[in-house]
């Protein structure tokens, strides 16, 4: 009997074991079947989604920590077509809130291809509008109204410029596709934008840590002083109105290290409405005239001619020249600006009275090889290398060029026949204010990334003249300003500088009715801490820079010494003694 | 001899052998149940933590957006034009160079803006730290091999 039970039990066990084994075998078969692979791949598709993560664009600050370019949240307003219950209601509400027509929205909602699950109604919608829509949605949900079911909002960043048009020519702008144009935004676009990454975002909570972190773009600190920039822009705008000039540019730079403290040009646009660019500018070079537009600067170039001649030992400050009112160079007669003979003059007086004939004579005494060698070393005809997008090179014709004539040596000496940008000239003249060393102008002060700070060191672009030459010419230009009783002077401060009134070349010769008025100056003369360049295009109240650009320089210098805490010379010397 | 036989018979008793099998089986089942329970518990906790991580990520993104919005709002409220307007309303006017007084303050260093003082200056740190503090043992050995033991 017991044996029968045992046999039956054994059969039962074997039977159950076989069933179990069959179940396991079937499980293994199903797991490894072709269909299983298809199911697995389908499952993987719903295990997460690829998502492009755009890092927050780096911010831009001035040197005082004031935000110049930041980001704000805007929304993509869209509708899930699968969840949508009432397209009529959605079209009506969204049309009203988003400023669209009923038909526009309704057609998007009902006319989309059948396989579409989601449709974008409008992007870059402000937070206030979205907040109102969300409130309405809540109210309707509370009232069990499913009219807005399916409506969704996806937040993302948009560039925002809290100072609107301030420093717009220098900052540039970012379009909706996230790309920077002009200025800092273009030059440092890669750094600011960071590295967008396509990431797999798993729905499985166990894999949540697998989502990679996408670091934000690099934050930039500029050398710009926001308050000085605002003052300089105000001065430039007033100058254009007062002197009837078409356009202009003013740059303030530290001649010791090349830091740009302010750079104002006209016209400017509100960067939050960058679309105005197309109606404001004819071409890209107009966006920042200080670096993008080369012109014949006129007598401000005499600073370089005199620097070269002094350094080459061709003349000394006390060297005299008898000015007869004209000089012939290369068979062409060159005249003074007033067509008068100024008689015997030393080199300081030649600069003071801005005598073309005298400076043309100086250049001929140097000879073309020496003269153009110096001009090359001053960087004329080459970009300065400033870290802003859209820099022009200017043009320096040299012997051997097909369009160079002997007379060019004479005219180039007083800034005609050679084109430069205001910044190029500033960089060249910085050698006079900075003990013979030429600085590379730059706008970036520091970079911040992941909590670390990287400072940008100053760079020098060579020493075209000696220390002695720089000091001598610095003194000559300070004396010439004082003796001229220039409108560029600032009480309490000894400044050095030079005016420049240049005729404007046209296709049929020089325009006799209009000029470019320029002024370059720096101070304090014994310890230069700022350098200012003023350019007014076609001033109509007076063609002379001594009556237009010079007083503008004085006004800029006045604001600069206040904002940079530069005491008057007497106070500064007293403070130096107490140290 | 008889006692030994009784003990042996007791050890070999069928019910006792069965109980041993059942005990061993139950032990395995309990062990597996414990492992399964532990696994489930850990998995459940991991799932909850994972969900929290996901939520925190969304929260971080939202906070970052709010932060950026507030920064921009603050910048708008303290923009040059706005500050100038408020200053003029309060009766202030721009200062002239001659109206300023200068007082020497020994040892005074102008404070850096918050944005810079909050960040670590990598440039200066890199210059300040000697190589001994940054070089790994392998790098040191590599350098010694390359330089022939002399620095």
Can you walk me through this structure?
The complex is a heterodimer of chains A (579) and B (151). Chain A is α+β, with helices and mostly antiparallel strands. Chain A folds into two domains: 69-162, Alpha-Beta Plaits (2-Layer Sandwich), CATH 3.30.70.2110; 226-578, Beta-lactamase (3-Layer(aba) Sandwich). Helix content of chain A is 38%, strand content 23%. In chain A, strands 2, 3, 4, 5, 9, 18 and 19 form a seven-stranded mixed β-sheet that branches. In chain A, strands 11-10-22-21-20 form a five-stranded antiparallel β-sheet, sandwiched between helices. In chain A, helix 12 (302-312) runs parallel beside helix 14 (356-366) and helix 12 crosses helix 18. Chain A is elongated, with a radius of gyration of 35 Å. The mean pLDDT of chain A is 92. Chain B is mostly helical and 151 residues long. Chain B has a domain at 8-94. Chain B has helices at 2-11, 14-77, 80-89, 114-117, 122-128, 137-147; one strand spanning 120-121. The longest helix of chain B has 64 residues, at 14-77. The radius of gyration of chain B is 39 Å and the shape is elongated. Chain B starts with a helix and ends with a helix. Chains A and B meet through strand 3, strand 5, helix 9, strand 19 and helix 19 of A and helix 2, helix 3, helix 4, strand 1 and helix 5 of B.
Summary keywords:
heterodimer, A: 579 residues, alpha+beta, Alpha-Beta Plaits, Beta-lactamase, 2 domains, seven-stranded mixed beta sheet, five-stranded antiparallel beta sheet, 20 helices, B: 151 residues, mainly alpha, 6 helices, 70% helix, 1% strand
Summarize the SSE layout with pairings.
The complex is a heterodimer of chains A (579) and B (151).
Chain A: H1 2-31, H2 34-45, E1 48-53, E2 60-61, E3 67-80, H3 87-98, H4 102-110, E4 118-125, H5 127-142, E5 151-160, H6 168-171, E6 173-174, E7 180-181, H7 183-187, H8 189-193, E8 197-202, E9 219-222, H9 226-243, E10 247-253, E11 260-265, H10 277-280, H11 289-292, E12 295-296, H12 302-312, E13 320-323, E14 326-329, E15 332-335, E16 343-346, H13 347-352, H14 356-366, H15 368-377, H16 407-413, E17 419-420, H17 422-433, E18 444-449, E19 452-455, H18 467-483, E20 496-506, E21 509-523, E22 530-537, H19 549-563, H20 569-578
Parallel strand pairs in A: 2-9
Antiparallel strand pairs in A: 1-8, 2-3, 3-4, 3-5, 6-7, 9-18, 10-11, 10-22, 12-17, 13-16, 14-15, 18-19, 20-21, 21-22
Helix pairs in contact in A: 3-4, 9-19, 12-14, 12-15, 12-18, 14-16
Chain B: H1 2-11, H2 14-77, H3 80-89, H4 114-117, E1 120-121, H5 122-128, H6 137-147
